[in-house]
Amino acid sequence: MLPPAVRRGNRRCIRTSTCCVRAAALTSLAPWRNPRAPPPPRLLDRVRAALRTRHCSLRTEKAYVGWIRRYIFFHAKRHPAEMGAAEITRFLSDLAIQRNVAASTQNQALSALLFLYRDVLEQELPWLDDIVRAKSPMRIPAVLTREEVQAIIDGLDGPTRLLALLLYGAGLRILEALRLRVKDVDFNRNQITVRSGKGGKDRVTMLPAAVSRDLAKHLETIRDQHEADLRAGAGWVELPWALARKYPRAGREWIWQWIFPATRTYLHRETGQRRRHHLHESVLQRAVKEAVRSKGIPKRATCHTFRHSFATHLLEDGADIRTVQELLGHRDVATTMIYTHVLNRGPAGVLSPADRLRLL
Q1: Which residue in 45, 51, 152, 249 has the fewest CB atoms around it within 10 Å?
Q2: Is 75 a catalytic residue?
Q3: CA-CA distance, 256 to 352, in Å (whole number)?
Q4: Active-site position among 161, 275, 278, 307
Q5: 198, 252, 277, 295: the active-site residue
Q6: Can you give the pLDDT at residue 125?
């Protein structure tokens, strides 16, 4: 049947009546799709949605998306659903042989691909369990002496000095220290509550007496800065999860402010709030690197080395290894046991035979 416009004698449609009939026939044969419906999400968007549904960290999301993108480009942009164990093995072999990556890096890439196939593409394939993970060798961490720790801290000033003292005195990771809020420090009980640490776990650690007084003075300065931000219409900070919807004004309260805020504010596009982020980790990393170089310390010392030194020096002072495990937030005591290998006197106080010789 001809379209209604053709039946009414529309001359313009009569000229193209054949085309109209063909178009109508093709439309009737094609599957129906709402033209206003949004297009299906892309693969990487599905990966991001699956990770956020499981409350994975932003760093995990960036790492997994990056590895999946590399995997796709390595195989000339083939869709992962069209590939399998052979393609994954070839990709991991290239990482190990051609790029010479560490075992932990190779295992991270494998975890990203397993997440893609199991949780995003929902493919329960038997070859997923047969993929061999690279064996990570045990590495002895670099540890500073007490004199070296003192020298590095003396080479710092301002907030970077306080941060270094917290890393060494409380065994914090760098992001755990930078993400501390006012409410997380209890001066009366001399303790620090670490929120959403590695693995999303909370824990309680000590507040060193050597840091307490300087930290209290630092908070007075930060409070004056916060009050000035409030008068300027700013003073907002990012809140975890959905607390911003539950407590709309909590983002400007003093207890939620960062202890180590950034020097600049920024405008949050979604809410229009003038916010202040916490200090970026590169500020502390550069300061520690410069202090290590200027003091002439012949070790590759980083911010994380303070945490290694914290655990080692506690064990040297006779602390129980279970206590050290709780302070560090390790899931398994075997992870904490690695620090017994770097004690000066050894785990059992063994004396070297060379120390008993009478050497000139």
Answers
A1: 249
A2: no
A3: 53
A4: 307
A5: 198
A6: 66
pLDDT per residue as tens digits for the range 213-238? 999 999 999 999 999 999 999 999 99
What percent of the chain is modeled with pLDDT above 70?
A: 83
Q: In this structure, what token pair is assigned to residue 246?
A: 């539950």
- Are residues 162 and 116 both part of a single domain? no
- Residue 275 annotated as catalytic: no
Catalytic residue among 183, 203, 277, 330: 330
Instruction: Quote the tokens at residue 260.
Output: 């180590």
**Pairing status of strand 261-267 against strand 203-206:** unpaired
DSSP one-letter string for 278-303:
EPPHHHHHHHHHHHHHHTT--S---H
**Dihedral (Cα; 186, 190, 195, 201), 10-degree rounding:** -140
Q: Closest Cα partner for 43 from 76, 67, 65?
A: 65
Residue 173 is among the residues annotated as catalytic for this protein: yes
Would residue 304 show up in a list of annotated catalytic residues for this protein? yes
Active-site position among 173, 181, 276, 308: 173
pLDDT greater than 80 at residue 132: no
Q: Single out the catalytic residue among 70, 75, 274, 304.
A: 304
8 A C-beta contact, residue 339 and residue 347: no
What is the extent of the structural domain holding 50?
43-128
Please tell me the distance from the alpha carbon of residue 235 to that of residue 241, in angstroms, as a whole number: 19
Task: Output the domain CATH number for residue 199.
Answer: 1.10.443.10
Determine whether 161 is an active site residue: no
71, 117, 168, 339: which is the annotated catalytic residue? 339
Q: pTM, whole model, 2 decimals?
A: 0.78
Residue 37 placed within a domain = no
- Cβ atoms 106, 92 nearer than 8 A: yes
Does the annotation mark 252 as catalytic?
Answer: no
